[in-house]
Write a structure and sequence with these properties.
Length: about 100
Protein backbone atom coordinates (compact mmCIF):
# COMPACT_ATOMS: atom_id res chain seq x y z
CA UNK A 1 0.00 0.00 0.00
CA UNK A 2 1.28 3.45 -0.81
CA UNK A 3 1.94 5.98 1.96
CA UNK A 4 -0.40 8.53 0.39
CA UNK A 5 -3.30 6.08 0.60
CA UNK A 6 -2.62 5.42 4.27
CA UNK A 7 -2.66 9.15 5.03
CA UNK A 8 -5.92 9.62 3.12
CA UNK A 9 -7.57 6.74 4.98
CA UNK A 10 -6.79 8.28 8.36
CA UNK A 11 -8.24 11.68 7.53
CA UNK A 12 -11.67 10.98 6.16
CA UNK A 13 -13.52 14.03 4.96
CA UNK A 14 -16.97 14.63 6.40
CA UNK A 15 -19.90 14.10 4.08
CA UNK A 16 -21.25 17.15 2.26
CA UNK A 17 -24.79 16.19 3.29
CA UNK A 18 -23.87 15.80 6.95
CA UNK A 19 -24.94 12.15 6.97
CA UNK A 20 -22.68 10.02 9.16
CA UNK A 21 -22.94 6.31 8.34
CA UNK A 22 -21.19 5.23 11.55
CA UNK A 23 -23.75 7.05 13.71
CA UNK A 24 -26.58 5.60 11.65
CA UNK A 25 -25.32 2.02 12.11
CA UNK A 26 -24.81 2.58 15.84
CA UNK A 27 -28.34 3.93 16.27
CA UNK A 28 -30.07 1.18 14.28
CA UNK A 29 -29.28 -1.62 16.76
CA UNK A 30 -31.74 -3.50 18.96
CA UNK A 31 -33.88 -1.09 20.97
CA UNK A 32 -33.50 -1.19 24.73
CA UNK A 33 -37.19 -1.89 25.20
CA UNK A 34 -39.40 -3.55 22.62
CA UNK A 35 -43.10 -3.00 23.43
CA UNK A 36 -44.09 -5.88 21.12
CA UNK A 37 -41.64 -8.40 22.59
CA UNK A 38 -44.20 -10.10 24.82
CA UNK A 39 -46.79 -10.21 22.04
CA UNK A 40 -44.30 -11.83 19.64
CA UNK A 41 -42.83 -14.36 22.12
CA UNK A 42 -45.43 -17.05 21.36
CA UNK A 43 -44.09 -17.36 17.82
CA UNK A 44 -40.84 -18.93 19.01
CA UNK A 45 -41.95 -21.20 21.87
CA UNK A 46 -43.89 -24.43 22.27
CA UNK A 47 -45.56 -25.68 19.11
CA UNK A 48 -44.00 -22.88 17.08
CA UNK A 49 -40.39 -23.43 18.16
CA UNK A 50 -37.78 -23.71 15.44
CA UNK A 51 -37.43 -27.50 15.87
CA UNK A 52 -41.17 -28.12 15.72
CA UNK A 53 -41.54 -25.96 12.62
CA UNK A 54 -38.68 -27.91 10.98
CA UNK A 55 -40.30 -31.25 11.82
CA UNK A 56 -43.65 -30.12 10.46
CA UNK A 57 -41.99 -29.16 7.19
CA UNK A 58 -41.02 -32.80 6.49
CA UNK A 59 -43.84 -35.04 7.73
CA UNK A 60 -43.01 -38.74 7.60
CA UNK A 61 -39.33 -38.21 6.82
CA UNK A 62 -38.18 -40.19 9.87
CA UNK A 63 -40.42 -43.17 9.14
CA UNK A 64 -39.49 -43.14 5.46
CA UNK A 65 -35.77 -43.03 6.25
CA UNK A 66 -36.00 -46.01 8.61
CA UNK A 67 -38.13 -47.97 6.13
CA UNK A 68 -35.71 -47.28 3.27
CA UNK A 69 -32.68 -48.26 5.38
CA UNK A 70 -34.48 -51.47 6.38
CA UNK A 71 -35.25 -52.30 2.77
CA UNK A 72 -31.65 -51.65 1.73
CA UNK A 73 -30.37 -53.94 4.49
CA UNK A 74 -32.89 -56.66 3.52
CA UNK A 75 -31.89 -56.43 -0.13
CA UNK A 76 -28.19 -56.55 0.69
CA UNK A 77 -28.31 -59.55 3.03
CA UNK A 78 -31.23 -61.67 1.79
CA UNK A 79 -31.68 -61.06 -1.94
CA UNK A 80 -28.49 -62.52 -3.36
CA UNK A 81 -29.56 -63.67 -6.74
CA UNK A 82 -29.92 -62.96 -10.41
CA UNK A 83 -30.23 -59.22 -10.08
CA UNK A 84 -26.44 -58.95 -9.71
CA UNK A 85 -25.52 -60.57 -13.00
CA UNK A 86 -22.66 -59.37 -15.16
CA UNK A 87 -24.66 -59.32 -18.42
CA UNK A 88 -26.16 -55.97 -17.54
CA UNK A 89 -22.67 -54.47 -17.44
CA UNK A 90 -21.51 -55.97 -20.73
CA UNK A 91 -19.05 -58.32 -19.07
CA UNK A 92 -20.61 -61.54 -20.30
CA UNK A 93 -18.06 -63.93 -21.79
CA UNK A 94 -18.92 -65.50 -25.11
CA UNK A 95 -17.31 -68.91 -25.87
Amino acid sequence: MQPSRILRARHEKPSITGFDMKKFIASSGQPRYDPWERAEAWRYTGTFSRWNRFKAGFPGLGIATVAFAGYCAYEHFFLKGDHHHEAAHGEEKHH
